[in-house]
Amino acid sequence: MTWVNAIVQGILLGGLYALFATGLSLGFGVMRLVNLAHGDLAILAAFIALSSATTLDINPLVTLAIVLPGAFVVGVVLQRLVFDRVVGVDPAFAIVATFGLSIVIQNALLEKYTADTRGLYVGELETSSIRVNDQISIGWLPLITFLCGVGVLAALALFLKRTKLGRAFRATSDDPEAARLMGIDNRRVYGVALGIAVATVALAGVLLGAQTSYDPFIGPSRLIYAFEAVIIGGLGSLWGTLAGGITLGVAQALGREYNSQWGELTGHAVFLAVLATRPTGMFGKVQA
Amino acid sequence: MSNQSERLLDIDGLDAGYGDFQALFGIELHVDQAETVSMIGANGAGKSTLLKAIAGMLEPTAGEIRYAGELLAGVPANRRVANGISLVPEGRRIFPSLSVEENLLVGAHIGRKGPWTKQRVMGAFPMLANLAGRSAARLSGGEQQTLAIGRALMANPQLLLLDEVSLGLAPVVVKQVYEAVPIIKGQGTTILIVEQDVNQALKVADRVYCLLEGRISLTGTPGSLAKEDVTEAYFGLASTTEAGA
Amino acid sequence: MIVSNGALAPGYSVRRSTLASRIFGIVALVAVVVLVVLPTFAGASTKFKMVELLTLIAIAQMWNLLAGFAGVVSVGQQAFVGLGAYGMIVFVNNQGFNLYLSVVISAVAAMIVSIPMGLIAFQLRGSYFAIGTWVLAEVCSLVMINNTSVGGGSGASIKVTDYDLATRQDVTYWFAVVAGVGAIVLSYLVLRSRLGLRMQAIRDNEAGARGLGANVYRTRFAIWTIAAFWTALAGATFYLGQIRVQPTGSFSVVQWTAPIIFIVVIGGIGTIEGPVIGAVLYYLFREQFKNQVTWYTITLGVIAIVVALVLQKGVWGIIRARTGLDLFPVRRRLVVERREPA
Predict the structure, then answer these.
(1) So what's the ipTM on this one?
(2) What is the pTM of this model?
(3) Residue B206 neighbours by CB under 8 Å, 6+ apart
C-alpha cells in the first residue's frame, strides 16, 4: 500500500512540475526560445513572497496578489530587453544571456538572503490533509497545487482556443511573418507569452516554497524538472505537459520509495529513456 | 495618365534586394483607386520582391513608396495592414494549426471596418463555408489559395496584393481562383496582382506592367499590347537589329 | 580571377598568414618555452595559479570550439571535468594504475562515456540541447554521489602518498601547460583542417553546407567527443593538483561552466584569441576581488549578458573588427599581388 501512496504523492507532485513546465512550454511554443533562468525566477518569486509576507505581516499565499502581476510585468520586460534582441541572431546568445541571468539571480539572492534554507509558512494548510485510509493521505496543500496546475493548463488551453489573442499566439507560433501580414504585432504577442510564462512559474515557486524548504540555488533543478516534464510529455502539447509532469513525479516518488537516495536519478532515468527511444515524447507533435 | 490624387499606390525610383543581390532597379509604377493592375514577368524577375516591399516585409534601398499620398518608409508591416494594405503571400502561408474558420478570424485581427465579414467571405467562397471546421493543413492547393485570399479580405483592405496565386495549381483550379477577382473588384477594392500566368493576368487587369530582370520593360492596357511586344518584354529576347550574336 | 582549369589567375594568391600572425608565432613560441621552464624559477603558489589559469583556458577553448565554431551550445561541460576528476579516483585509488598515466586514461574514459551521452543529447536542438547536457551532467554527479566506491556524497582523495610531492606539483603543472597550450593548438589545427572548414560552413549557413554534402551531425559529434576528451584532461590535471575530489565541486556549474562561458563570451566567442584574453581578464579580476565572490560573479554575469545581447563580439572580436588583426591565421585571404592591365 505504501507503493500506492507513493504513486498518489507522485501524481500530486506532478501537478507542481506541470505548473513549472507550463511557462517553459508556452515560451518555446510561441517564440522557440527557452529561458534558462526559468527556475530561478520561481525561486525569486518565493523569496519576494517571503519578504512581502514578513513586511506586510500577511500569509504568503495572499502576497500572490502582488507577486503574480509583478511576475507578468517582469516577463514582458524580459522579452523587450533580452529575447527581442536575440531574435534572428545566433541562438547561442539567447542561451548565454539567460544562463547569465540565472547566475546573476542566484548570486543576488545569495547576497540579500544568505544561503540559509527558507520556507513559506502558510498556516494550517501546511499540515492539514485528507485521510483516505491508513497508508494514503492527501495533503491539502499538494492537492491545491495539483489543482492549480490543472487549472492553469485548462485556462491556457481555453485562452489559446477561444480568444482573439490566443488565436494570434497560435498563428504567430505557426508563421511569425505571415502573422505580421495579418496585422499582428509579434513583439506584443511574445511579451504577453513571456509574461504569462513568468507569472505561472512564480505561482509554482510560491506553492513550492509553501511545501518544501528552498534556498537561492535550487532554481536550476526546477528548470531541469520542468524541462524533463515537457520532453516526456511531448513538445507542442499542453496536456502532454501535465502527463509529463505526472510521469516525472510518479517516477521520482517510486524511486524514493525504493531507496531514499534514488528519487532524482529515477526521474532522470525515465527522461533519458524517453529521449533515447521516443524523442517526440508521449503526445508530442514536434521533435525538440 | 491619372493625376496624383487618384493614385492609391505610387512608386518612384524603387531599388530593393536581398543582401548583396539587387532585385529591383528604379521601379516606377502606380495604381489608381479601384483599379486592377497586373504585373507579369518570368520567375526571378523581381515581382514578389516588389509586393514584399509594399507590404513591409522588405526595406527598399532607394526610392519611395506612397500609399494614399503618405510615404510608407518606416511603417512596420503589421501597421500597414491597419492602413489597408493586405498581402496574399507567395506560397499561401495559411496557418496549419488553425482551422479554416480560425484562419479567417485571424485575418480579421486588425478589426478594420468594411464589407467583408466572415459570413460575406464564406458567402462569396462557398467552398470555405463547407470546410469551415477543417484543419487548414489538410486542404488542397486550390482550397488553401482561396482561404488565403479570403483571409486577406477579412482585413477589409483598400489595396489587395496578390502574389503568384496560380503557382503550383492546375489550370482548372487557377481559373476558379481567378473567379474571385471580379467579386473583390465589385466591392471597390484596388488590386495589384503579380503573376507568371500571362493569360489570366491580362484577362482581369485594367492595366499591365511587365517586369524583366528587375526593370519595367513594358506597360499599357491589355487591349493595346501586341502579343509579340508582351513576349519580348517578358522574356527579354534581343531584337534582330542588335549587333553581335 | 579563376582561369579555366580552376587555378587562380597570375597576380592573385590565397594566403593564410599575415605579418602580424608571423610575429605572433615567434612571440608564442617564446612564451611556450618560458612556460615550460617556469618550474625552475617559480614557487609553488605561482605554479598553482598557472595550473588554474591553464586548465580554465583549456576548458574555455573547448567550449568555444563547440559553441563558437560548431554551433553546439553546451551547459554541461562540467560533466567532463567531473568525469576526469573521478577517473583519477577510479584508476589510481581503485585500480592501482600509475598516477600520471591515469590523467590520460581518465580523459580517454571520459571521451568514451561522451559517446552515449552525445547520442542522447543530440536528439535535442538549441536551448533544449543545452538543458539536456545539464541534465546529463547532473546524472553523472548523482551516479558518483550514490557510489560508495568513489566516496559517495563526501567524495574521496586521490591516493598520491606513494609519489614525491615536488615532482607531483611539477608534473601537474606541465600537464596543465599541455592542456592549456594544447587546447589552443588543437583549436587552431581543427579550424585549419577540413573538419574545421565544414564546421564553419555549417555555422555560417547550415542548409547551404548540407547542400554541399557536409554531414552536420557527424561533424558536430566529432567536435563533441574531442571537447569531452580535452575537458576531462584538464579536469583530471586540476584535481591531480587538488587531490580532493567531491561531487559538488567537480561537477559544479558555478565553479566550472559559468566562468568558462563568461570567459569565452567576454573574451570573444568564435575566435581563438578570445578565450585566452577572457581567461586572463577573468583571473585577474577574480584575484582582485577574491573576497567578494558574489559581487564579482554578478558583475561578470551582467557583463556577459550585455555582451551577448548587444555586442556579441567580445573583447577580441572588437579588436579584430577595428584592426583586422588575426594572431592565429585560420582565415584564408585573397591577396592581389599586382594590378591587372587596364
Answers:
(1) 0.90
(2) 0.88
(3) B35, B36, B37, B221
